[in-house]
Amino acid sequence: MKNIFIQYPKCSTCQKAKKWLEQNNIEFIDRNITQETPTIQELTQWIKQSNQDIKKWFNTSGLKYKELKLKEKLPTMTDTEKIKLLSSEGMLIKRPLLISDKGIFIGFKEENWKKLLQ
Question: Which of 62, 81, 97, 98 makes a 20 to 30 Å CA pair with 19?
Fold first, then answer.
């Protein structure tokens, strides 16, 4: 499976992650999260594979998250509703995302991403 790098080009953390991938000669498909937002099917599969709580997939520091008052709303929503919401607005998804056969990486933490090199 080819690595899928999902990012927002204006995000400094995404830029740093992309640079890291390039410096380490890791091939990837580059997807802009606002132009090619992950689908309900992709998110459902990736969230399951990640073994992470669905809340980790939300960009809790983002303006859209705050604007929609999701801190109050998420606890009463079903996982299906949360996934549908994530798929409707790329800026709600924590980024960057790296989908790889070595795991699902949410956000950029270099020490975690080094698993790609092993």
Answer: 62
